[in-house]
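agent: user wants the full assembly modeled, not chains individually. Plan: 1) parse entity lines 2) check alphabet per entity 3) run joint structure prediction 4) return tokens. Steps 1-2 passed, three entities, 544 residues total. Proceeding.
--- entities ---
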Amino acid sequence: MNKIANVLSAAFLVVTPFAAQATPDQDLNEFREYFFKKFPDTPKNDFINGVYSIDPASREQWEAFEEFPSYEIYVDKGEELFNKKFANGKGFADCFPNYKKGIRQNYPYFDTNSGKVVTLEGAINKCLTDNGEKAYKWKTGNITYVSAYLAYLSRGNKINVKVPNDAKAMAAYNRGKNHFYAKRGQLNMSCADCHYHYAGSKIRADILSPALGQPSGFPVYRNKWAGDSSKGDGMGTLHRRYGGCNKQVRAKPFNAQSDEYKALEYFHTYMSNGLEVNGPSQRK
Amino acid sequence: MAKSIKLRAKAKDGTATVKALISHPMETGLRKDKKSGQPIPAEFIQEVVCESGGKTVLSAQWGSAISKNPFLSFKFSGAKSGDSIKVSWVDNKGNSDSIDASIK
Amino acid sequence: MNHNRRTLLKGSLAAGAVGAAVSAGLLTPKAVMAAWAKDAFEAKEVNAALTGAMGSADATASDKIKLKAPDIAENGAVVPITVTSNIDGTTSMSILVAENNTPLTSTYDLGPNTEAYISTRVKMGKTSDVIAVVKAGGKLYSTKKEVKVTIGGCGG
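--- prediction returned ---
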């Protein structure tokens, strides 16, 4: 029964028709204006704080956490890992020479040579494998620590994802855009249903966060993940969350760092261009 | 042992505000591992002590209901920048750690 | 001096977790004073927990104790709690969660120059009163606030 449902949900993608082929910048302006109008009391950059930018009660708790957030423990771990030399004498700094000035804001980017979207996690693991080291697992642990350290150093930098004038880049962007707006799963819901149309509304006891500013705070320390020791220490990547979201509408999740999630991250992050990086962040 | 305590201690107008974030599982001993079904043994900090200038500023006793990666903040007077401060903890398994720092 | 006796005393202090910490130089002897209040922490009723932690369960409600806690906890595993006592001569403070299996979360002995202010994060099993009790001038005073703990919405 389940297998049939999964196949059906995969085939059930309804692509929201768009008038003409909108450019990414047109999409971006429309996206932003929609949220600025929906939440007029939220300062524009504050959307990077997700639910806390639109709900005072949970914001108060979040501010209490920010006094000394748990993710600082993992930023420290990331720093240690980042500075540890590989067996061949090189280190992460060789792959990320500008890391001190902050680099998170440039990811993901489209590599026209390989024809692929490159995410920060992808770049971290490529650095490892290029230097003869073993790649980290994609969703938890070391990858989140190094990503957290790099994000931390990038705080305040404005997100600056680029979609070059390249057919494959546009295809990846559009693939991500389609994923965002397409219905999926047994619950037949799209990312847009919760995080665009119903952003700010309640789903049981949770408030749906706006899609604007969503990726800025990753990797994320989720109290929910931390509370269950079988789920690791609480730190997780964006793709970990994507998988969780897909599962929550009872759709089969894609693999972390799959082309599908990389495309989604590409579109999703582009929609937050101009907002400041604030990773890592603490969330519910 | 790796330092498990992150400490921030600042003095202003003679009062020191101390904030500590400790990396510790604070396991209650009541949970079962979802994969193995085995109970996860209790592992939680039982005592936290803070000293400054050779005197005990705070002596805390904790139970397993203090959250994982525990946070603690307190204040004391008669403090100035440069004063020494020490925070230590001991858990139910006999593990411990401490940090020596200066109030900023 | 009887050397055997001296050795025996040293041995008994070195035994146990706290002793180990002392001999490792991590706790100065003064700080070793309090043994962990096992009975208080394992008590299943608020009164028993309070008696174990603070010597009595007889606390007078006071509006001079400020208890900051969320109305609805974002996550029951990490609820930020801040207790400030404006009662003169506050020497110790305790935080209890009435509906937890074992209500006592923590208890704090304040040094002479230490403010009656504690901020920490506690676990709550379900919606419950959070109770702050302070000892001042040998008497106990308390205040409480109900904190709701909910199940999340996005599938759990």
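agent: reporting back. Residues 5-30+40-95 of chain B form a domain with the Immunoglobulin-like fold (CATH 2.60.40.10). The beta strands of chain B are 5-12, 15-22, 45-52, 55-62, 71-77, 84-91, 96-102.
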